[in-house]
Design goal:
single chain, 3-stranded antiparallel sheet, about 25% helix, globular
């Protein structure tokens, strides 16, 4: 929003001044804005060897020589050793060549620039498993990024990889970033959408990053990638508040989806482009989510233990700590049948 591009200086979201004003206003309210880092895929419209070049039309900013002089090539060549982009992920885009020191240092410098320019306080890593984990550590431990929050979009289901792999990835990044808990979210979706014994509630006691490394898990129910009418993604279609109850009473850092809180709880795939229908249906979940947030702030502290779990019923306990007394969460995913269980809370009567 600072340069004249395609006949307009402001983007569709506003000007550079608008962005800075927004970030400043958020920070005054105690909200830490984070920036989406998309550092690992590029499409230049070319084919063959040229698809790995950074071809930038009538612009001279990026067409530079290798400043290190370590090779006889211009930096931007089709050699996978010296090109700015190499490898490819399902034709989705070309990965940034982080083995090249010029590219690596340039990205870290850009991170400082955008942090200082706008005032961002944290970072979200897009498609993180396409990046080298050592670079995430290097980036997050450099300059203005040091000691700030970041979270990885490590978009992998349990059918594609294990949760233990996510724990290993955390270690490879030197624990400089949290990870969105995609395995947990996949089970939460099944809990809500499937009926009764089609989903086993005991899965929630052992699946997901929140059960392995809760201090590094960013738990969520929906995101812009899971529910969006323009891509015919309808996601969780029933009993969504059960998923929010689990997320907001669990350990980890919970994320609330903008669409659930402000827009509407369901995506309508039938007419997403209609000028009247914006593709969202149903009332928002704001009132119910606010109730759970209040309970979380007041009670949900300490370690997590599971007091009972079978195919339909889960009873979970937050043990409490010096600031919060703890709480019990009971979830029944059966559509028609009441479920019950006797549990030992470990708390004395009247507490």
């Amino acid at each position: 929003g600072a340069y004249n591009e395609k006949g307009s200086v402001p983007t569709r979201y506003g000007s550079e001044a608008d962005l800075k004003y927004c970030v400043t206003a958020l920070r005054k309210l105690g909200i830490r804005p984070i920036v989406d880092l998309v550092l690992n895929h590029n499409q230049n419209g070319q084919s063959g060897a040229d698809k790995f070049r950074f071809i930038y039309g009538n612009h001279n900013t990026f067409e530079k020589q290798d400043p290190g002089g370590a090779n006889e090539y211009n930096y931007f060549t089709d050699s996978t050793n010296h090109a700015p982009f190499h490898y490819e992920y399902n034709n989705f885009g070309r990965d940034v060549n982080l083995e090249h020191p010029y590219q690596r240092e340039g990205l870290k410098a850009w991170g400082d620039w955008v942090t200082a320019k706008v005032g961002y306080q944290g970072y979200r890593w897009d498609l993180a498993f396409n990046l080298d984990p050592w670079f995430i550590s290097e980036f997050m431990n450099s300059g203005l990024k040091k000691d700030r929050f970041s979270v990885l979009e490590y978009w992998e289901k349990e059918t594609e990889g294990t949760t233990e792999e996510m724990v290993t990835w955390l270690a490879l990044t030197d624990y400089r970033s949290a990870i969105f808990d995609m395995p947990l979210r996949d089970h939460l979706k099944d809990m809500c959408n499937l009926s009764g014994t089609a989903f086993n509630m005991s899965n929630l006691t052992q699946r997901g990053l929140v059960n392995y490394a809760p201090q590094w898990a960013v738990t969520f129910v929906e995101s812009h990638d899971t529910i969006r009418p323009y891509d015919n993604k309808v996601s969780i279609t029933k009993d969504k508040m059960m998923a929010y109850a689990f997320v907001l009473m669990s350990a980890g850092l919970p994320m609330i989806a903008h669409s659930d809180y402000f827009v509407g709880r369901n995506a309508d795939e039938s007419s997403p482009d209609d000028s009247v229908d914006d593709g969202w249906t149903g009332e928002t979940l704001k009132a119910q989510i606010d109730q759970l947030i209040g309970l979380r702030k007041a009670y949900a502290g300490g370690a997590t233990s599971y007091l009972y779990a079978d195919s339909d019923l889960l009873v979970m306990k937050r043990e409490g700590n010096g600031q919060k007394p703890g709480c019990i969460l009971a979830l029944n995913d059966h559509d028609t049948t009441t479920k019950s269980a006797n549990v030992n809370t470990g708390w004395s009567e009247g507490v």
